[in-house]
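hi support,

uploading two proteins for the ticket. first:
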Amino acid sequence: MNETPHLPSTGPSARRDFRLLLSGAVAAQAGSQVTLVALPLVAVVELDATPFQVGLLTAAETAAFLLVGLPAGAWLDRMRKLPVLVRADVLRCLAVGSIPVAAALDVLSLLQLYLVALVTGVATVFFDVAHQSFLPVLLPRDRLVAGNGAIETVRSSAQIAGPGLGGGLVQLLGAPLAIVADAFGFLASAALLSRIRAEERLPAPEPGRSLRAEVAEGLRFVLGHPLLRVIAATTAASNLFSAVLMAVQTVFWVRVLDLSPAAIGVLLSASAVGGLAGALCAGRLAARIGQARLIWLAPLLTGPFALLWPLADGGVGAVLFAIGGVAVLFGAVVYNVAQVSFRQSLCPPRLLGRMNATMRFLVWGTLPLGALLGGAVAEQAGPRTALWLCAAGFLVVPVPLLFSPLRGMRDLPSAPPEDASADAGPTDAGPTADAGPTTDVGPTAGAAPTADVPPGADGDPAADAAAGRDAADAGRAR
């Protein structure tokens, strides 16, 4: 863990290693957003896939969280994280780069798409868990929310620019060739990450500890805490219905709304504006409303906009779909900023990998199930019916939160001491005072406040985008 003292005038972006990490995220996210448009279009347009086959492709992309999600955290807690990040990027570069090569040789098939999706999914599991556990090496805890906010801002910005670029490339070059941009993005990310020079200690081995015992310890930590349990249940439900959307939206756009690849790219870019707005506003909202309140208010107020997706039709169909996407993605990012930082802040450093992997297993493990469900419903009843199922699901997502202890809290509990025994399970600390949490909380996708620092007080625009008072959490439901 980085013990560098906090300098109030120095934000995360003033640190060279963090800038390299952020630049790598820019490169990887830009390419991935191109593939977000291109890969489903390869299946739907080039290979004439059925709705269920498209759902199966989406399931293959996320099946790794069920297959290796839990042991990945235990393995990563035994090794340095930076080499894992670099190798995962190289593997993803080679996998997605095989698609345009196969297309040029006229041997591309759905089987290859499934294999590429599965390989990149496994690499992404290790990359994401290592990434969440590596950030605290680069930043002191009171800068984690600002750092996570900066990363989420990059992700949201890529979601705005990338799909439009991807749609244009697909229109000009065809879907398989457009995926070359993704391969170069992963390669650039690997090159940038390899230049990070932060000293990362090799975790001390724990004699006599089996992989099974370490995985169980991560499960006990997450499932033994009442707040982490309800956050896991809510995020898992959100991801289940998000996967239904992911599995059927391209089929709906192409075969129901009759949109071109360029129009699909613009639609995705327009929807992503909500994610960027959420990343920019999450810290301020947490400071004013309360971090705990924000976790249940965000999905409660934005979920109903999902009803616009199945209502989309005719000439204005794409506009309605985009409005729904803007609102739902805004709520998802705000929710994620608040809950992921909380998770990281609550967890002892030695358990970070297992905690993050356990949460990813629980909340992302529903993605392949949702994708198969969406594909099956679309196959039997049409993509619009599948979208109605998705919209109904988003209406019930916040229900567990409304019946949880979060409903009566303003802010989230302070982190336990770092030397607290993980075997004893997390302490069920009570909520902090209304002044807001003052301990650092870790991040993932969003941001919540952590210290009594006004937004942007450190002069860092990333902090202004993510935090009002540095005490928070972040996450990524979608």
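and the second one:
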Amino acid sequence: MSRHRSVSGSVRSGCRTLILALLLLTLGLSAPARAADAAFAQFVASVWPEAQAAGVSRETFERETRGLEPDYKLPDLVLSGRPATGASAQAEFVQVPASYVKEATIARLAADGRRLMQKHRAALDRIESQFGVPATMVLALWGRETDFGRYTSPYDTLRVVATQAYVGRRKAQYRDEFILALKILDEGAVARRDFRSSWAGASGLTQFLPSEYYQHGVDLDGDGRVDIWHSVPDALASAAKQLADKGWQPGLRWAYEVRPPENVDCTLGVPEVRHPLGEWLRAGFAPVERLSPAEQAQPASLLQPEGIYGPSFLTTANYFVIKQYNFSDLYVLFVGHLSDRMVSPAPFATPWSASTQLRTASVEAMQKHLARIGLYTDKIDGKAGMLTRAALGAYQKSAGLKVDCWPSEAVLQSMRAAR
């Protein structure tokens, strides 16, 4: 009998274990996941004192964080035991210019922008008068960010900023964004169901982080609240104020397309190299359109998004203001060109040339090599921006290669052979 009871007990114990395992499997909760969720809950609870100090009510805090879970599929996370999730999904950094600044898309949005300019003329006139930012520029931001409101951001903003604050690469920044997102909800500025964002937490028609909402939000329609999610006047005015707050200069173009001389030194394409436009012209850069004496006196930097291939530009201070809205050169080109196209139908005078873009990991390998030999001191992020392209050109000079400032497989192989 004692043996029978022992066997029966073992069977019952095994059944309980099996049932528990099946229950956990059904719930999708492994032991590490439960531990992670517990740690996340502890992290959320730790934010309460700061949220309270920011004016968030306990009721709102409890309601909005109840059942909140991290989203470990987001880019830009640093997860223990796993490779960092990069921002490789951002089209600005993995597409060739022709694919990103697509002519058909620009033409469609420009036509939409002209119609919307008439529809919102009164609000846009007030925006231009108050902030000095052209109507076409704020419309271009709206068109690029959310396709004039037709695109709905896929993520729950609160979940995004909470996850980024918990395991993101920029935890301190996103801790503040998490608190301010709770404050937005507490104040009733937007309902949780409408508080949708990009993977980085930017929300609304013109895509603001919660901190940007508080820094630059404008109630242009006069209803007593800043509503960048549903009010077009509020969203466009807020975008204009953000540009103005970051240094927008009224009456100044964002850039001028030019045809460079055949012997152009593409390593000059960095923000620090600034000369009056007239000086660039005397050095052989031919403007696509006539420049006035006042324009020729403006300082500008060389921008060659495809190195010596494709269109070239001389960029003004306002180019770098837009770059503070989104750091990608292709983003600024898209927005600036779209703004121009609402006034003029002319596409870029020089067509794009590049048909392939190296993978992020390959560009990152290039950056690491350039940093090792002292040619590159910026972030290792796998993005072929201005500084990376200029450093590539400097490497090409030193290695006796053709100097085109464009990340290619041939340059990558040269670097690997030089190790």
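thanks. also noticed: The beta strands are 155-156, 196-197, 255-259, 275-276, 286-287, 299-303, 305-308, 312-315.
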